[in-house]
């Protein structure tokens, strides 16, 4: 799709009914994200989410998909070493039905990505802001704001590609930093809070449907006013990603 300049539409789902709706809307990649810690379980972060939680929601989602690729998050500490990562990915794929796993990382996780790759696990590397590190970072902030940290994220992308990652996802970097990452790799780059010049976009389902209470990230968009219904909002999101009308300038970081 990158080679054909076809934008990749990705969205989270956590259950069977919404998986069907998301699949019917023509979403290409459905993510069982560890954001389920926030939007399903009501935790303040993704830290408490377990492999078992992701497996359960993957099973529910897998039954609802006909067409989309099913990607599942490896939760916090489920890939801290190579053997643990392989066990965790095995559970997501064998029991959950996931076709690709996603892990948050930097070049420090290259050996883990390589071990998964050698074992035959398709991997998406999630770079930039790593929400699982919220307690270490002290909050959710835009990443790569100075030259040195931007260079470091570009290096992370290259190292994870070289380690065998099949897909990259970048969160919360300025549009120019996302463009630098994209230019440095051959892999497709899916963005969230990373500007319009990525190969695709991902959002959290509840944000797209406008049902998230309280503070919503600046980079997400409620598609319900435009779509008028759940299927309408999901289709409007898919269309906006394909037409590159999402995100707009107000939904990006400078
Ligand atoms: O857990 C999640 O939903 C994610 C996406 C927002 C990228 O990782
Ligand atoms: Na996640």
Automatic annotation (TrEMBL):
What is the organism field in this record?
Spiribacter salilacus
Q: Which family does it belong to?
A: Belongs to the PanB family.
Protein's UniProt keywords contain Transmembrane: no
On assembly, the entry states: Homodecamer; pentamer of dimers.
- Alphabetical GO biological process terms: methylation; pantothenate biosynthetic process
**Pathway, per record:** Cofactor biosynthesis; (R)-pantothenate biosynthesis; (R)-pantoate from 3-methyl-2-oxobutanoate: step 1/2
User: Active site at which residues?
Assistant: 171
From the Swiss-Prot or TrEMBL record, give the protein name: 3-methyl-2-oxobutanoate hydroxymethyltransferase
The reaction(s) this protein catalyses: (6R)-5,10-methylene-5,6,7,8-tetrahydrofolate + 3-methyl-2-oxobutanoate + H2O = 2-dehydropantoate + (6S)-5,6,7,8-tetrahydrofolate
Compartments annotated for it: namely: Cytoplasm
**Where on the tree of life does the source sit, at the highest rank?**
Bacteria
Q: Identify the residues that bind Mg(2+).
A: 34, 73, 104
């Amino acid at each position: 799709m990158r080679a054909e300049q076809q934008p990749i539409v990705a969205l989270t789902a956590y259950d069977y009914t919404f998986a069907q709706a998301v699949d019917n809307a023509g979403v290409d990649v459905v993510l069982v994200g560890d954001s389920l810690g926030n939007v399903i379980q009501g935790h303040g972060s993704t830290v408490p989410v377990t492999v078992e939680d992701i497996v359960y929601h993957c099973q529910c989602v897998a039954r609802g998909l006909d067409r989309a690729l099913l990607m599942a998050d490896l939760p916090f500490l489920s890939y801290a070493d190579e053997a643990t990562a392989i066990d965790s990915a095995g559970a997501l794929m064998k029991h959950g039905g996931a076709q690709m796993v996603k892990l948050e990382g930097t070049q420090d996780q290259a050996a883990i990505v390589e071990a998964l790759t050698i074992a035959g696990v398709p991997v998406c590397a999630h770079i930039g802001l790593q929400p699982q590190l919220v307690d270490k970072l002290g909050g959710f902030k835009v990443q790569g704001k100075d030259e040195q940290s931007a260079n470091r994220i570009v290096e992370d992308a290259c190292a994870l590609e070289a380690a065998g990652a099949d897909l990259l996802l970048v969160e919360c970097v300025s549009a120019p930093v996302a463009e630098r990452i994209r230019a440095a790799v051959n892999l497709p780059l899916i963005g969230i809070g990373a500007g319009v010049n990525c190969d695709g976009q991902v959002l959290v389902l509840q944000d797209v449907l406008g049902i998230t209470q309280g503070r919503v990230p600046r980079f997400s968009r409620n598609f319900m006013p435009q779509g008028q219904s759940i299927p309408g909002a999901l289709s409007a999101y898919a269309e906006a990603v394909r037409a590159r009308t999402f995100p707009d300038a107000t939904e990006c970081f400078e």
